[in-house]
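Team,

Forwarding the record for the chain on the shared tracking sheet. I've put the sequence and predicted structure together so nobody has to dig through attachments.
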Amino acid sequence: MSKKSQKIIIGSKNPVKINAVKNAFSAMFPDVVFSCEGVSAPSGVADQPMTAEETLLGAENRVSYAKKHFQADWYVAIEGGVDNFKYGPATFAYIVIDNKQHVQIGRSSNLPMPKVVYQALCEGEELGHVMDRLFNTENVKQKGGAMALLTNNLVTRESVYTMAITTALAPFVNQQLFNV
């Protein structure tokens, strides 16, 4: 029996995000072959979202754009952002998954952020650029990201995104429990 095929449009061309989507979907739906295409989808928010609300809105906007301009079975967006919580600044990502019948929102774990990094973001820099400067790396946001740099490579941007997508997919694989 051949596996059925489905297409996923991802609201970014970043290979880290594309790989995380493909890994999570393939694990959650082993009987489906997924083709994943990253597209340039505008977030409609700042390049470096500075609140949880702005970060979520960026992911929602990317999915909306993708749905209007591309045909697919699934639409996924991942938006990384930061916020200064009562316990300190942290970075995280919001995930939006849409299969044209249901929209599910997920979120990654928080990574505590050094105050020097948060201050640079408040001054208008992007997290990837700040981390590249502090750790003498190049284009870390398309590699392990701040997650890898600050955790001695125990977790990476891709592994955190894969986990967040996997957990956000729970309602789609347990539709009867979630009434999806």
